[in-house]
Amino acid sequence: MTDKELRKLNRSDLLEILLEQSREIDRLNALVAQMQEQLDSRQLLLDNAGSIAEASLQVSHVFEAAQQAAEQYLENIRTLSGRQEAVCAKLETESRQKAEQLLAETRAKCQALEAETQETCSRMTREAQEQADKTWAETKLKLDQFLEQQAGLRALLGLFNGEMKRP
Length: 167
Description:
Layout: H1 3-8, H2 11-49, H3 52-165
C-alpha cells in the first residue's frame, strides 16, 4: 500500500492491518525458530559425522558387524542342522531295528502257525485214512458175508434147479 492509501484508512482498518502484520511476524518468527532448530540439528550431525570419510567408516563398521552377525547366524544354522541330521539318523536306525525285530517276530509266529497247521492237517489226514480203512474193512466184511450168503443161495438154487430138471 502506498502512503496515500494508508492515510485514507480509518483507525479500525489500520488496527486490523497491524494485527495481521503482528500475526505474520509471529508466524515468521516461529518459522525462523524451526529453521534454526533444523540448522542446529544438521550442524550437530555434521559435527558427529565429521566428514564423508568418517561417515563411510562408520557405515563400513555397521556392515562389518552385520556380516559377522550373518556369519554367526549361518554357523548356528549349520550346527543345528548337523544336530538335526544326527537325531534323524538315530531315529532312522532305531526304526529300522524295530522293523526288523517286528519282522522276525512275525516270521516266527508264521512258522509256528504253519507248523501247527501242518500238524493239524496231518492228524486230520491220518484220522480220515483210518476212518476210510475202517469203513472199507467193514464194507469188505459185509460184502464177503453177502457173497457167502449168495454162494449158499446159489448152491441151493443149483440143487433146486437140478431137481427141477429131472422129472
